[in-house]
Amino acid sequence: AVTRRVAERTVELAADPVEKTKRRLELAKLIEAQGDTAAAGKLVDEIYSENPAVLGVIRTAVNLHWRSASKTRALEILEASAAKAATPALKQGFTLEAARKATETGDFARATRLTGALLAEDPIRSDFLAARAGILAAQKNDTGLRDFYRAAIDSVNKSNKSASEKTTAIAGIRRDLIP
pTM of this prediction? Predict the structure, then answer.
């Protein structure tokens, strides 16, 4: 209780907004460590709503919710952050992470939707292909997985990539298709 009160007081005394946010995130981690995941989640959501574009806040919110069995909330934050992302790479990273986490939780419809958006942007990118293949594998859909890989090979052949890029991409896909 003393440690928590000291952390709360440190937040109150912080004058700089960045420092205050940092201290509040530390307080949320402390509250979580003390076993009050509901209060920690509420505090992190409050911080996230005030700072939805700060990467450290997003990461902390996602990680805390994921650990505390609020996996749906973690996915919501990742999707919202992807929608607001300033750069395509950041957007793709959030979307890919959300797709993988959705697959892990068994939310295959959401994972399929997310990977579909990624594959629409770059249909031969290996990590996007792997994420979609992971969904089919988690569903134990061997026929669908085989058909997906064959369609991916056709997509690579039809792309305007260089011959060496096509060869590398097809080799990777075939390596995954063999098992």
Answer: 0.82
